[in-house]
Each structure stands twice: as C-alpha cells, then as structure tokens.
C-alpha cells in the first residue's frame, strides 16, 4: 500500500508541479479545483487506512507513535482543505514529499528482504543514495518553502489557519529530521560519528545483522574479482 500510493501521488504531483510551476508559487492559498481535489481525497484515504493498520496490526513503539502523529496532522490539515476549499496547492506542496517516499519505501522493501542476493546489494546502495539525495529537496526545501510562505502571508490568512499550518509544519519538520538522521545512520553515512546508542529509540531495527551484510559484501567483491 505504501509504495503504490507514493508512486501515484508522487508522480502526479511532480508532473503537476512541472506543468503548473507558476501557479504553484503564485496561489497556494486561493486556488481550488474539484478535479484536482481528488488527489487530496486519495491521500486522506491512505493516511486513514495506514493509521488503522498501525493501530490493529503493529506493536506500539516510538516509531509507530511518531508516524501516527504525522498521519493525524496530515488528516486534520487535508480535512481543512476539503472543508474550506482553501490551501489546495499548499497541500500539493506538502504532498510533494511523496516523491522522496517512492525511494524511501523501495529502500524499506529491500531492507526487509535481508539483502539475500549479491545483486540486491548494488541495487540497495543505489536506492539508498538516491533516497538521501531526493530527501533534501523534496522534504527539507519543500518544508522550508511552506513555513516561509506562512510567515510571509501571516496577515493575509486567518490566524487559525496560520496556527494550524505552523503546528503541522513543525510536526512534519521534526519527523523529517528524525527520519533523515535515522537513514544517514542506517545506511552508513554517519555511523562512525553517531552510534545506535546516541539515536536511542530512533535507531533503525534492520532485518539483517551487520555481520551478515559484511559477509554478503565480501562475497560480492569476490564475485567481481572472479568475473
């Protein structure tokens, strides 16, 4: 469910942004279209479904609680978009993060596969690098634009909308920072400087042991030398 949703919403929103860049920057608040509202409804359905799935099928832990808070904030904000007929393109900006999520979920699938073949090690490495590279523009830069737009238009929007947008943005910023640090550590970019103990509950519980990963990498190197 995660990857199909990310593909649908991420590809649609990226293409929409490329085709309507000027509109995306010019009218995040007032623009409204019933047809273009459908991606908001799809996103709401996904967040509700995933929240219920976590409640009934997953063990309660810090990661699931953080993700649940993220989903609740998303549902609340998208409900406001649906009810007020405002902030449609503002929500589009926020959902642009799903472009990054495509590779994030691909990485998760490869991670859960325990890197069982040598070919998957190379694929995992490529996906992890692409995931980190896309994480910065599609999450942090997008987040920065949303917060900056809210401050610039502080006196042009209702204070309730401003307060709600800032609370949601701060929530998303916190979860994105925690996720980014977790990814950097899990994929070996900062493991020498930040240990799992430093990350505490935010350290990723990978499906494979590091020694197994090392053995697979060694086998992959041996395979390359033999060929």
TrEMBL record:
<keyword id="KW-0472">Membrane</keyword>
<feature type="transmembrane region" description="Helical">
    <location>
        <begin position="60"/>
        <end position="81"/>
    </location>
</feature>
<feature type="transmembrane region" description="Helical">
    <location>
        <begin position="126"/>
        <end position="151"/>
    </location>
</feature>
<dbReference type="Pfam" id="PF03798">
    <property type="entry name" value="TRAM_LAG1_CLN8"/>
</dbReference>
<dbReference type="InterPro" id="IPR006634">
    <property type="entry name" value="TLC-dom"/>
</dbReference>
<feature type="transmembrane region" description="Helical">
    <location>
        <begin position="157"/>
        <end position="181"/>
    </location>
</feature>
<dbReference type="GO" id="GO:0071709">
    <property type="term" value="P:membrane assembly"/>
</dbReference>
<dbReference type="GO" id="GO:0007009">
    <property type="term" value="P:plasma membrane organization"/>
</dbReference>
<feature type="transmembrane region" description="Helical">
    <location>
        <begin position="29"/>
        <end position="48"/>
    </location>
</feature>
<dbReference type="GO" id="GO:0005886">
    <property type="term" value="C:plasma membrane"/>
</dbReference>
<dbReference type="GO" id="GO:0097035">
    <property type="term" value="P:regulation of membrane lipid distribution"/>
</dbReference>
<keyword id="KW-1133">Transmembrane helix</keyword>
<protein>
    <submittedName>
        <fullName>TLC domain-containing protein</fullName>
    </submittedName>
</protein>
<keyword id="KW-0812">Transmembrane</keyword>
<dbReference type="GO" id="GO:0055091">
    <property type="term" value="P:phospholipid homeostasis"/>
</dbReference>
<feature type="domain" description="TLC">
    <location>
        <begin position="1"/>
        <end position="172"/>
    </location>
</feature>
<dbReference type="InterPro" id="IPR050846">
    <property type="entry name" value="TLCD"/>
</dbReference>
<feature type="transmembrane region" description="Helical">
    <location>
        <begin position="87"/>
        <end position="106"/>
    </location>
</feature>
